[in-house]
Amino acid sequence: MCYPASARLVPGDAILLAKPVGCSPEPFYNRFVSAGGPELFVICKSCGSEVSPYITECPYCGNRLRKRAPKIDRDGRVAEKRRRRPPAPSLPRLRSDEIPGIRPDSRPYATVLLVVLGLAGCLVWRTSLLDLSQLAIAGKPGSHWWRLFTAPFTYDNTGYAFATLVAIALYGWLLERRHGPVAVLLLFLIGGVGGIAVTAAAYAAPLALGGNGGALALLCAWVTADLLAIRAGEDVEADLMGTAAIAAVVALMPLVVKDASWIADGVGILAGFAIGLPLARLRAR
Predict the structure, then answer these.
(1) What pTM was computed for the model?
(2) Residue 22 lies in domain
């Protein structure tokens, strides 16, 4: 190919020039500075010199050009920075009245409160601040009526506390998602505090503590809806076998812990089914 000597090549452009007579026109590509090729130089911001893009410091003034040398791919090009993977899509929290018949997502504040009070009652009497007899029911409460409200949150056995608080945390959270915090607090008051009160009234020298009645009230109220669905011939996704195992562990605590009350168990079970039945029917509407 022949080109006039006065022709100037512009980087990145394909130049079509005519040959002298007898020559056919052909396109000419500047392969080294065409679009898509590696950069020939970069400009130093300090001294304005043209330097190689593969060095980290300017050889003329010592100015820092980049933190590290760029990576080169197989074709001799500067590898581009990989973009971070976008975050996985997730559904936002359900807002109030967004879907009719479904409660909006909310934090289980009532359940967390019950669990925290139970943990505090399990630990506070072991300090020098309070004595166990000041929190639990040991004899008729008499003028110390407030012990009826502290005894359901007091535990003198670690296994008893663990089993009861796990049941309260699990089924209180599930029930609060369905019906809100008021139902959880009401059930625990009737099953826990009410169970301790009935125990104190039934014995001449009562000894009772722990929230086994409240835990069973929450569990039975939650499982009532699934039992009604099974009775109607519907399929349920709940693990009823696991629920039955947890209920048996909590209900049989009086066999191994003398301070746990059988009467509180019965009051909690009755309260759970009595309140859980209208709640389940209300939810089904």
Answers:
(1) 0.64
(2) 1-35
